[in-house]
Amino acid sequence: MIDSSKSSVEKSSPDELYQNSRKRGKHKIFIGMAPGVGKTYRMLEEGRNLKEEGIDVVIGLLETHGRAETAQKAQGLEIVPRQTISWQGRTLTDMDTDAIIVRSPQLVLIDELAHTNVPGLRHEKRYQDVEEVLTAGIDVYSTVNIQHLESLNDLVLKISGVVVRERIPDRLLDEADEVVVIDVTPETLQERLIEGKIYAPEKITQALQNFFQKRNLIALRELALREMADNVENDQSVCHISERVLVCVSTYTQSVQLLRRGARLANYMNAPLYALFVEDPNRFLTRAESLHLETCERLCQDFDGEFLRIKSHDVVMTIVEVAKSERVTQIVVGETGRSRWELLFKGSLVQRLRRSLPEVDIHIIGYSQVVEQKAEIK
Q1: pTM above 0.70, yes or no
Q2: What is the pLDDT of residues 19-70, one digit of tens each?
Q3: Non-local CB neighbours of 260 within 8 Å, separated by 6+ positions
Q4: Interatomic CA distance for residues 132 and 308, integer angstroms
Q5: CATH number for domain 14-235, candidates 1.10.260.40, 3.40.309.10, 3.40.30.10, 3.40.50.300
Q6: What single string gives the DSSP state of each residue in 27-61?
């Protein structure tokens, strides 16, 4: 039987623990190409083994999704009870971060790192709660799927046609002490799905026809393995510090796509990332445009980049000046929406940049129109 009782030992409050802050906890992430590969099972298995060795291990949050084998693997491990939240007349539950910190185990197992918390909690995302637990000196094992990485969002949409709405900053993998890829073949994963080990029977056919198509799984598996390879390279201090990436954003919504592509480029090169918005001093931004730029700035910060906002009448010269001052070697811009007549008389932004910055590589990203399927991946 799963033990969900709290320890009767009196502990310090979360605030007291912060004030007496210990060494930051270590973070181990189990990552896979899709739901059902066995991330949670492996996390529980390692947690049980450590408990048998005398380590104080608890479950902070577990989602079995009705999988009997996963629930059985959790037996014998203490579970920190969830907190109850009232929201819009409904009673909801979510992970109790404060209770975990007060319990203060040596290791806590936390499922679904990319989860969006119930409204009204201290943090919007579960990964932010995990960071708080790590700061309190508690080691964390967590799970996530590759499609939840922020910089891969557009690529996953292109591969699968599915919009992944729950995402985590790429820096979490970089900052983790260990990242373990749980790898199975696409054929094995499809077999598990057909056997009812991933979703309920009524969802199996739809899943096979959509996200769990073999071609999708092959592409996602490649992404997961490539991410692991990049992580190993970074651990070996493969550093191209001479490279610097600048993404030119605008009030167009496609700027979010540009930022993600620029972040991937910077990650591959292990290079600093900058995002630049050149603001026309004579033009007032609409509320929607202002909110869009705030989103771009937050996204840039999630990628550990620096967001620059400069007022100027000359967009090209401002980009050139920033590129020179920051020693930029790679510039990411979107394809132009200007007419042929405008290009003929004024020249394109890319042409002018190439003339002014002949030593800089310029990446022109096209904006493909993709029909979003209203689907989420857990």
Answers
A1: no
A2: 444 689 999 999 999 999 999 999 999 999 999 999 999 999 999 888 888 8
A3: 150, 151, 152, 153, 154, 299
A4: 29
A5: 3.40.50.300
A6: EEEEEESSTTSSHHHHHHHHHHHHHHTT--EEEEE
